[in-house]
Amino acid sequence: MTSVSEALSYSDDAIGIGRKGTIDRPYIIRAPFWTVDTLFYSIPRQRTDLDFAFCLFLNVNWRKKDESTGLPSLSKQAIVGTKVVCPSLPEQRLIGAFFRDLDDLIALHQRKQCTKKEGQT
Fold first, then answer.
1. Residues with Cβ < 8 Å from 9, sequence gap 6 or more?
2. 83-118 residues labelled b (16+ CB within 10 A) or e (exposed)
3. Alpha carbon distance 66, 24 (integer Å)
4. At 90, which helix (H) or strand (E)?
5. Which end of the chain has fewer surrounding CB within 10 Å, N or C?
């Protein structure tokens, strides 16, 4: 592993997905960011909403694209070869915001449950 002095992106957020191991757990990477050799990243195109693209990444069966016999692995070709259909940008923004808000609401309720359980012990 070598060190880097420049971020891969200083202004654009991206979606990260493991190249080895955690190939089925994409997540949003906030700029600025650096990466390691076991992570792919994707900065959505100008007319693609980040939250909508993240929903697409979450709904791909990445395990089905596993190219290994041991530790789950993805290749750049497997990711690039994944075809999706995208609605207009305004619709992407609405869909992406809906699922982001839903994720935030679920996280809030999970924190409340943990706080409740801690108070009972």
1. 31, 32, 33, 43
2. eeebeeeeebeebbeeebeeeeeeeeeeeeeeeeee
3. 10
4. helix 89-120
5. C
Alpha carbons 6 and 28: distance in angstroms, whole number? 19
Tokens of 19: 């190249």
| pLDDT(13) > 90 | yes
Residue 95 · residue 55 · CB < 8 Å:
yes
- Give the orientation angle of helix 50-58 with respect to helix 89-120, to 10 degrees: 70
Which amino acid, one-letter code, is at 105? L
- Partners of residue 17 on adjacent β-strands: 40
Strand arrangement of the beta sheet that strand 39-42 belongs to: 27-29, 14-18, 39-42
Give the phi and the psi of residue 39 in degrees, each rounded to 5.
Answer: -135, 130
Q: Is the pLDDT of residue 1 over 80?
A: no
Residue scoring higher pLDDT (14 or 69): 14
